[in-house]
Amino acid sequence: MAAYTCNKCGMSIGSMTCGQCGKELEHDSLTTDSGATVLISQCPDGHGKVKSPMCCGEDMTCSV
Fold first, then answer.
1. In the predicted model, is pLDDT for residue 1 greater than 60?
2. Residue 13 belongs to what domain range?
3. Structurally, how many domains does the chain consist of?
């Protein structure tokens, strides 16, 4: 299972599910207009996407 992990303290988050359909969110990334890469999790059925979680004041990372 893919997990988001905090590079500072090691805390991790496992699967997250969509509140509309119950399917596990898929880890992905997107590129902003300024060229920055943002880690996200999104519903495989297109119900939406969320930015990666934060811990210790930084974005958590996922190696998928």
1. no
2. 4-51
3. 1
